[in-house]
Amino acid sequence: MARKILLEHAHVAGIEGYDVYRKMGGYRSVEKALKTMTPEEVVDEVKRSGLRGRGGAGFPTGMKWSFLAKPEGIPRYLLCNADESEPGTFKDRYLMEKIPHLLVEGMVTSSFALGVHTAYIYIRGEYKWIVKILEKAIAEAYAHGWLGENILGTGYSLDLYVSPGGGAYICGEETALIESLEGKRGNPRIKPPFPAVKGLWQSPTVVNNVETLATVPAIVNEGGEAYAEIGVGRSTGTKLISACGNLNKPGVYEIEMGVPVEEFIFSDEYCGGIPDGKRFKACVPGGSSVPILPADLMLKTAKGEDRVMTYESLSDGGFVSGTMLGSGGFIVFDEDQCIVRNTYTYARFYHHESCGQCSPCREGTGWMEKVLHRLEYGHGREHDLDLLVDISKKIEGNTICPLGDAAAWPVAAAIRHFREEFEWHVRYPQEALVRNYGLGRLEHYYGAVGV
Amino acid sequence: MLKVTIDGIETQVKSGTTILQAARQIATEHPEHSHVVPPAMCYYTPLEGSGGKCRTCIVRVSQGSEKDPRPMPKPVASCQTQVMDGMVVENTTNPDLLAARKSVVELLLINHPLDCPVCDQAGECHLQDLAFEHGAAETRYEEERRTFERIDIGSHIQLHMTRCILCYRCVYTANQLTDERVHGVLFRGDRAEIGTYIEQAIDNDFSGNVIDVCPVGALTDKTFRFRSRVWFTRPFDAHRACDKCCGKAVLWMAGDEVLRVTARKDAFDEVEEFICNECRFDHKVKDDWTVEGPRTINRHSVISANKYKAKDKTVV
Ligand SMILES: Cc1cc2nc3c(=O)[nH]c(=O)nc-3n(C[C@H](O)[C@H](O)[C@H](O)COP(=O)(O)O)c2cc1C
Ligand code: SF4
Ligand code: SF4
Ligand code: FES
């Protein structure tokens, strides 16, 4: 069995409540950090751990923390990004629902390290019930002196608030999150300045993912080096993976970085293979925004090495034969799944969620969706495929925030790896329309819309 | 001072200057080099926070700085990117960049009709210039475009969202000139719309300025709308004693008739000083003004061609 750090006690009955959490060793990291360490020592421990942000980009957390500007007399903020809107990603929700105190503890310890006295959990509005769970945990933490004035008599004070968003994917982008938290429209800001210099209310701010912050207690308790020993190379520690799609055992798994992709999909310890003995066709391993790969490239890199679950291995081959670990939303497709339909669905999502500030993303995502809609509903033309690739290139790299890239990559990758399937849609539109991929006819899903 | 070279023309700029401003500085000092100035649809110097959105001002940085001579991997928005010492920029001299700009123009034109023959902004429209310089004769976009009913914003201003390119300039203008938030953006993506709070008028003495800042024909002056094409009018600098604003304006006249009053704009089509609604809408009579003399429009535009001279003599 793989080592577990985040979900070690997830199975313990009552772990969502304060008493059980504390009995299992909870809040030790706060005690250790506040009583025996300086903030700089905590930052150094996190640096040593090699922890990389779990929100998708994989930026080293310790380094991000050390960028935080510390001007005199101006408050600093820590924001927990619990927006979790990437399709296919549902790991933070599991963590917050099961062990809310782990996030609270992580935020107290991290806030201490960063010299922060006010911290927020920005959570997507759809996670209504988790807001209540978190608020209860926070109230318990206040009641037991882990939050509020003069924590453990050390003179350190911290207030922690939960702030639900309106449920927009773009509000997960850190600067849009800040705008939203300030009560404004969730439009990403132009960088620089980066949040570390000017973030919430123009003050220095760190934005971290739920999983990132929940990992900090273990690093403080066991030491950064012990954490860095887990994993492979620059991908240290464990990672939560939310696995879904055609799997016998979809769910949230904590893996040690470096598990072979094949083992993750097929072994009984993890996803248990593909249902009904069907073949493995394709996978999107890091949430819907990362490039899709066909089965052979998902299991082996272009060099013929086993693909393993690390940042480096998954991105090996760049965007030609590689993909990204992203946020760990692992989506598996069996042989019956239609890549065109899936690409259309993703395109619909990104079009819907584009904030509309920059012209390439605003207009390009809509255009891509419409072309894919045509292909999906049997009106595709030969030139549509090149047109799609061209539009995706016009968006990629030309926008304020990475949502533009997130919209462009899945389309470009799907056409790169599954071009024949798209061509088949163009050539046999009637068959494409009534294809039955074990899911029933299209109309069943979309009603008569556009058919 | 920092050294920057744009399209082979070298200049010195203060630290903190953006590439766009540096290019404008070159063009101001040496009008013969005005080709170094990238187009700008959303950036507007007097409007705090503007820029970065439309992506028409993208340039290629072929050398980041003297210290780090590597080229930047992607085109950058010149209105938001600060000059580094020794930076080398390509605006019109790089075919790849021109192709990228053409891409942006193609995308901007998806939901903007090229109805220049009937649009009130014709002759003063930046998108028209861009489409002319970078556009393609045929569109590849075959889908349905967005359509809207026209909206009256108060008695003087009309919004036609079909032409809006969501540059946010009017939003920043309203935010910076009014205390209450009555004008902003609703919805997301290509469904986004300029909204006035429950279609209220922007009840502010300076609301008319949103017309001047709009780079396309989405916000129009109802007291002028379709009464003439701009190139059939003659601009005159004029002033009047006003207790609300600077009172310095441009009268757009046909013969002795004042067809339109606007703020004065510089060579980059940005207003020099905002004017109040009273000057703009209520004093459309020549006698209300002290006319200073004809105004030369330096920037490249059909207005400067100004072929219509028939009634010149009757004026002033
Ligand atoms: C469009 C978009 C959506 C994002 N959504 C999320 C999200 O839901 N949760 C998250 O943690 N990070 C999200 N991110 C990444 C954040 O901007 C940011 O990088 C992250 O929260 C940093 O935390 P980390 O350093 O702990 O990874 C998103 C980024 C983009 C561009
Ligand atoms: S890339 Fe898309 S989501 Fe991001 S700022 Fe631009 S329009 Fe908004
Ligand atoms: S109405 Fe005009 S100024 Fe306002 S956002 Fe649209 S194009 Fe820009
Ligand atoms: S003018 Fe620079 S992005 Fe619009």
Written description of the protein model:
- The complex is a heterodimer of chains A (451) and B (316).
- Chain A is an alpha/beta fold.
- In chain A, 44% of the residues lie in helices and 14% in strands.
- Chain A has 20 helices and 12 strands.
- In chain A, strand 10 and strand 11 form a beta hairpin.
- Chain A starts with 17 loop residues before the first helix and ends in a 5-residue tail after the last helix.
- Mean pLDDT of chain A is 94; it is low at 438-451.
- With 316 residues, chain B is α+β, with helices and mostly antiparallel strands.
- A 5-stranded mixed beta sheet of chain B has the order 2-1-5-3-4, with helices on both faces. In chain B, strands 13-12-11-14 form a 4-stranded antiparallel beta sheet.
- In chain B, strand 8 (183-186) and strand 9 form a beta hairpin.
- In chain B, helix 2 packs across helix 3.
- Chain B is globular.
- The termini of chain B are far apart.
- At the A-B interface, helix 15, helix 16 and helix 17 of A face helix 2 of B.
